[in-house]
Amino acid sequence: AGIRDAQESRGLGDVYKRQVLRQQGYIMKKIDKSFLENALALINTVLFSMDHPKSPESMNFFQADTYRFYFLMSFMKEYFEGNEISQEYAISLVPQKYASRIKRLQILKQAVRLNYIIETQSLQDKRRRIYQPSDILIDDFIAYANNVDQNMRKAS
To answer: What are 97-120's pLDDT values in tens digits?
Structure first.
């Protein structure tokens, strides 16, 4: 128990030192002020958009965890670029380190059940499933993107 207490104590000391340094106007690493302002604007915008009480349910669904948010961004990028999105392609959009194959497939199927993503058959191969965002998701995503853009402009 003594070793753990010492580690916790040292950790709390580090936190205290950082607080004191911040109060005195120091930042651990020298960062160009404009870069720091841009970073803080991005952080504030993302946090605001993810915890906004008026966010539509589709955005809340995809922002529930890192994998879903990464998937949403990748899926919409592919859709807006005009790419056909098959089931295998859809679940490969996010690196495996974020979720197992089963979880990736479950999230895709859940989004289909919630009518955020539309599943259709391929015209060439009836066994192949093709996915695209629903009109609800497109409208919500466009509104989300515009809101983020406006917040970024206000912050800069």
So the answer is: 888 999 999 999 999 999 999 999
